[in-house]
Amino acid sequence: MTFQHSSCYWRLGSPRSRCELIWFLVRALFLVSRTSLFFLLLLLFFTLLFFHVSSYEGTNPIHVGSTFMT
Fold first, then answer.
1. Per-residue DSSP letters for 31-65?
2. d(CA 61, CA 42)
3. Per-residue pLDDT for 67 more than 50?
4. Count of alpha carbons within 13 Å of 49, Cβ hemisphere only?
5. pTM of the entire structure?
6. Distance of CA 7 to the CA centre of its chain
7. CA distances from 32 to 36, 37, 52, 56 (A)
8. CA 27 to CA 38: how far, in whole Å?
9. Are 16 and 6 spatial neighbours (Cβ–Cβ below 8 Å)?
């Protein structure tokens, strides 16, 4: 977000610049945490999906060479 007004330029020591700096840092931290949370959840989803799919490997109920009693 860019500011077009000349009164919004940061001046060292002014309360407005400190408030803008704090607001900028809060937004940056929120964006980073939200992005990292998204990637963490995505990684968790694919990890669980991988283990779920790999757990079914070799569990065929009809085994080769099995005989049925009649």
1. HHHHHHHHHHHHHHHHHHHHHHHHHTTT--SS-TT
2. 32
3. yes
4. 6
5. 0.40
6. 37
7. 6, 8, 30, 37
8. 16
9. no
